[in-house]
Amino acid sequence: MGALQYCDIPNYSAIIFRRQIVDLEQQGALISRAHEWLHDTPARWSASNNRWHFPSGAVLAFGHLSSELIKYNYQGAEFQYIAFDELTQFWEEDYLYLRSRLRKPTCPDHRFYCDACKIYHTPEEVDLLGTRTCAVCT
Length: 138
Hints:
Strand content: 15-25%
Number of domains: 2
Distance between the termini: 21 Å
Radius of gyration: 16 Å
Order of helices and strands: EHHEEEEHHH
Structural class: alpha/beta
Number of helices: 5
Strand order of the largest sheet: 2-3-4-1-5
Largest sheet: 5 strands, mixed
């Protein structure tokens, strides 16, 4: 599960989407798989909001888009990792909107590097994100 690769980084935030939350909860689906992998770790499960909380402050969340307007529940949210299980079940507009939630927080320790360095992805992502990132921390 790629979303776990940075769970030791303070304030890292990852989310995995499925069209219906019940699709994530089924036996053998991603939430049950995460329980198998994380049950003997210091990570804590919060069933009320479908999130794993790690000692570093990192969070792995599971979300859904069961209706067209639910994507706006994530307005203002910030994630460093977003994944879609069964992406073909999502509308492109929903996918693009949620990708706009991908951000890297400004690095307070290396702020002076941030203005000089940008990481560019595709031209569309550069236009969409316009994010300045730290050359030291990336």
